[in-house]
User: Which sequence fits this backbone?
């Protein structure tokens, strides 16, 4: 029995964190994950994703008990009835959430106790692209800006280093800035 | 008074749809939109985005009455407590939702009455990247696959054309496949 108790920092069990990193270093095949969602159209601009199962560390996950259902919509000006955030807003959420979690985990590993992490994220779009009225503007956001406010028990320079490291490791930041190959297939009838 | 009543197709008011497209063609400056979210860390792998306001068609939106709050989390194996889908799962949702909405709107414009649009989306990740234990695997998904099942009152070839057009106009598909410049700034203390 060790005299060192497992320290929880930023709500993260750092003993488990380091044990997980060691395990994956030793057995890289455990690092293969697959995440999934199913989506169903509910009428107009309203659709719903269902998220539960995923593959991780050599097998299908059995720990997640809740099935998440998340609704997307469009506001009136985009011909919907506000049944949820729109898909582009969900992308902003995914990016802000991933950078935030990365900041929290990096800080935990580097012995920085955070007190708050807040952010505002914006995306600018010329909707002529997505609406198909002009081929020149791209369909998606031309630019995304995210402003973090981070406080904790480390000097500003150290907090900035944590954010910088989080950027270099965030899964969604990588995908949104660099792109991912997407294969689409269709069954009809 | 027109004898032609506004036809709703796939839950979309197509008269309003075409009027919106005509307006934006005539006044391209109305096509400038900005979407936003604010995010706050709630402990460990748990954070929450708040989404309401956006800029559209020359002014700040006043039609959306609901404030959306969406929670992100991580499963146990990624050191969280399943307080919501994780950020990478939200990105899959954003992509499936955007392609689905694009399919529905394109079909409405092309006089195709849809009966169902369902999809399954998966993303494959080697988590050594995001966990920072190896520099070789990328942080995000290596590949995303989405399989649509689409039914409606058009022949299979026409339904496939609708999906193909939706891909070419989807805002999130553009962003996820091509990437977007993201600016991150940080205030500390």
Assistant:
């Amino acid at each position: 029995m060790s005299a060192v108790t497992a320290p929880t920092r930023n709500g993260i069990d750092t003993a488990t964190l380091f044990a997980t990193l060691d395990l994956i270093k030793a057995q890289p095949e455990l690092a293969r994950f697959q995440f999934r969602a199913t989506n169903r159209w509910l009428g107009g601009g309203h659709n719903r994703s269902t998220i539960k199962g995923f593959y991780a560390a050599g097998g299908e996950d059995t720990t997640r008990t809740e099935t998440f259902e998340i609704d997307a919509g469009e506001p009136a000006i985009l011909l919907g009835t506000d049944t949820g955030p729109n898909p582009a807003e969900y992308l902003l959420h995914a990016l802000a959430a991933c950078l935030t979690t990365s900041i929290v985990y990096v800080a935990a590993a580097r012995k920085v106790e955070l007190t708050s992490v807040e952010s505002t994220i914006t995306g600018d779009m010329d909707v002529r692209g997505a609406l198909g009225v002009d081929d020149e503007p791209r369909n998606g956001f031309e630019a995304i800006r995210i402003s973090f406010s981070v406080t904790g028990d480390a000097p500003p320079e150290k907090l900035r280093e944590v954010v910088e490291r989080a950027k270099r490791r965030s899964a969604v930041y990588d995908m949104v800035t660099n792109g991912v190959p997407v294969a689409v297939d269709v069954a009809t009838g």
